[in-house]
């Protein structure tokens, strides 16, 4: 029992999410800069599967996912990956501009 709890907590920390956020976000959203959408979807699938088998364990998952440590860590990761995404988009625009002006001569 202790090993399964440790596994559940590890899964939550890796795929930490709150359930309303998962169901409100689409994996295929075009303007999405949040790189955690796929782990969110996986976490929602795990929650739904576990909740069908044992609602008590499902409630434990929900409670664990909403602890302050998990929420703060998740928000930090979202904020930082969004910054990286914006920088990558800006870099791609600069490379595209260089390509068109220097290489192709437009």
TrEMBL record:
GO (cellular component) term, any one: very-low-density lipoprotein particle
Recorded superkingdom: Eukaryota
Pfam family, one: Apo-VLDL-II
Signal peptide positions (record): 1-24
GO MF annotation terms: enzyme inhibitor activity; nutrient reservoir activity
InterPro entries: Apo-VLDL-II
GO terms of biological process kind: lipid metabolic process
Keyword Membrane included in the entry's annotation: no
This protein's record includes keyword Signal: yes
Key words, A-Z: Signal, Storage protein, VLDL
Sections of the chain in a coiled coil: none
Family: Belongs to the apovitellenin family.
Function in brief: Protein component of the very low density lipoprotein (VLDL) of egg-laying females. Potent lipoprotein lipase inhibitor, preventing the loss of triglycerides from VLDL on their way from the liver to the growing oocytes.
Protein name from the UniProt record: Apovitellenin-1
Species annotation: Podiceps cristatus (Great crested grebe)
């Amino acid at each position: 029992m202790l090993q399964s709890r440790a596994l559940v907590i590890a899964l939550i920390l890796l795929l930490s999410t709150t359930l309303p956020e998962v169901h409100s976000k689409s994996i295929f959203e075009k303007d999405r800069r949040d790189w955690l959408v796929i782990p969110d979807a996986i976490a929602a699938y795990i929650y739904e599967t576990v909740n069908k088998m044992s609602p008590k364990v499902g409630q434990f998952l929900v409670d664990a996912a909403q602890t302050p440590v998990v929420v703060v860590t998740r928000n930090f990761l979202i904020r930082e990956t969004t910054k990286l995404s914006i920088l990558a988009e800006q870099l791609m625009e600069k490379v595209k501009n260089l390509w068109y002006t220097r290489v192709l001569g437009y």
